[in-house]
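note to self: dont lose this again. the chain is below, predicted strucutre after it. 522 aa total, dont forget to put it in the shared folder this time
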Amino acid sequence: MSSEKSPSILVIDDNDANRYTISRYLARQGWEVMEARTGAEGLELARKLPSVVILDVSLPDIIGYDVCKMLRANPETRAIPVLHVSASFTNSDDVAFGLDQGADAFLTEPIDPKELVATVRALMRLRSAESRAEANFAQLEAVINSMVEGVVTADRRGNILKMNRSALAIYGFSHPNEFPRSLDDQERQLERTYLDGRPIPRSELPIVRAARGETVSNFEMRVRRRGTDRWWIGSFNATPVRSSEEGEGLVIVTAFDITERKHADAALAEAQATLQRYADQLEQMVVERTSSLQDAISQMEEFSYTVSHDLRAPLRSIKGYAEVLVQDYAHRLRGEGARYLERIIENGNRMERLVNDVLTLSRISNAKLKLEPVPLQPIVEAVLREYPNLQSGMAHITIDPMPVVIGHESLCTQVFSNLLGNAAKFVRPGTHPEIRVTSERQDGSVRVRVKDNGIGISPEFHAKIFGMFERLDPENRYGGTGIGLAIVRRAVEKMNGRVGVESDGHSGSCFWVELPAADGNQ
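---
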């Protein structure tokens, strides 16, 4: 029945009086009525798809039972409700036979008009409900066929009833009739295993477990794809659907092809394992090389300390004899001899400073320190008092209030002695040193800056100058041993701090030292 036209009724009856009477009752309801006297005429008019067919059993050409069977055999008319009427076939066997042949209702004559109309209305409602159900089913089937997941329905014996297109594609079939329907056929045509390759017993298959009433979730197994040697990996869910009527119900199975995901997981796991092996190897290499480096550094420092310590005695002798020569025999030496002697004393003094710096660096490196709160203000002030080139007449120095840090007093003294001394020393000829010392808090630490107006340091040398024997003045116009900043870095690092420099190479330098603040929460 089309929802766009009013209901129509086809009355097939060879009795003119009966046909007229029935048609009049129906027309009064506003329904369109078509009439036929024979079975053949009725079959021809049925092609117009009436809402209901009222069919007399006794017809001159074809018995009504056979007409009903013909209507049911035709796909176009099979859904039209059929109401048998008869004055001859009235016993219960006749009624039952008619219903078995495909009729939807059976009335015996004489027919009560109200019962006739009510029966026709009931058949229309039935057909309308069937139409809605068919439309809903078609819509549901379209949705299921559009799903990426494979969907399979089966009965409780595991026999496949229906599959969507994705299920066929996953298993490697092009048509539902090709898929093995029964569990026995499936076992012969499909090879299914656990992920480790062990065969899956029939009783553990998701479709069988759901047939027992279980709900199965995320069951993973390998399936050999039909006609190939390739396997695919599926994740299966299976759910029993109980019938609302007395019956065995259905099983719904969904399948997800997770082959690519599993391969990706395996590749990721392998990559992670390889990365972990490399990390372990690298860590072991770092440990070994760090140990070797520490041994080498220790040996070097021990050697430097030994050499420096052993040089002090002969160096004192050289200086002593040179000073005796100056005091007692200077008048006997010619001008050039006197200059040679001055160079001996000058280089002896420089050698002594170098030895002392090496010993200082070695002592700092090997010192066992107890770190504690250290006020920087008195340390900086003491350095200014004790070093001649830092006196007010020699340099202009401004000091902001200094904080308290966690460190070691003697190392802090060494650090600021070297930084302030360098700031006063490395200035261009004729330039009066100007030095400013400031501090600032930075997340639990203190950064102290020593800014000068000296010769500056080019950015490419910022990292090098804290190394051993690194000097930016190869002609040694400013003196120095090339160890002073190495001592600063080693001392700061021993106090868990950092040191650096900021300079464009032209307008002075700003050395900074960062140490933990005594009140670390600030």
